[in-house]
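Q: I'm building a small set of examples for a reading group on sequence design. Run inverse folding on the following structure and report the sequence directly after it, with nothing in between.
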């Protein structure tokens, strides 16, 4: 596991309701206890949270460097995942997607939600422009830095 991925995971744990986390996968072992948490053995009762964390770690391990990180064509910007999590294209199952191909977005406008450890994080566009490509599927587990959208930047 890379240092930035470990820092990302620690940030997610800090923002969650989990006080103590013990994770073992092969030779990789992680014990994390929040500051101020009771000094207890790492007996995690919330199995779902552990399974979610393991799924996110597995996705991070399979990460491959993406050439889409920087488009060579001028005027194109790739919105990348600021964290690992589950990608949601809409604010709730009954709502319309935040954006579709052809949508015009503003810099601070949310384009999707990434869920990590039951926390929903809106991802802003980061630039003004038009969505020309959606690179992931609704409900897909996303890796840190993974390209999500391609935007044709407006002047």
């Amino acid at each position: 596991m890379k240092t930035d991925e470990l820092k990302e995971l620690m940030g997610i744990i800090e923002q969650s309701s989990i006080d103590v986390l013990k994770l073992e996968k092969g030779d990789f072992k992680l014990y994390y206890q929040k500051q101020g948490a009771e000094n207890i053995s790492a007996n995690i009762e919330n199995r779902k949270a552990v399974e979610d964390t393991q799924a996110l770690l597995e996705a991070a391990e399979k990460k491959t460097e993406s050439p889409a990180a920087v488009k060579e064509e001028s005027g194109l910007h790739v919105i990348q995942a600021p964290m690992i999590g589950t990608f949601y294209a809409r604010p709730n199952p009954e709502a319309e997607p935040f954006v579709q191909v052809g949508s015009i977005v503003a810099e601070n406008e949310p384009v999707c939600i990434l869920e990590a450890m039951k926390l929903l994080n809106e991802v802003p566009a980061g630039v003004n422009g038009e969505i020309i490509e959606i690179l992931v599927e609704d409900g897909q587990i996303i890796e840190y830095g993974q390209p999500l959208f391609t935007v044709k930047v407006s002047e």
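Residues 47-61 form the longest helix (15 residues).
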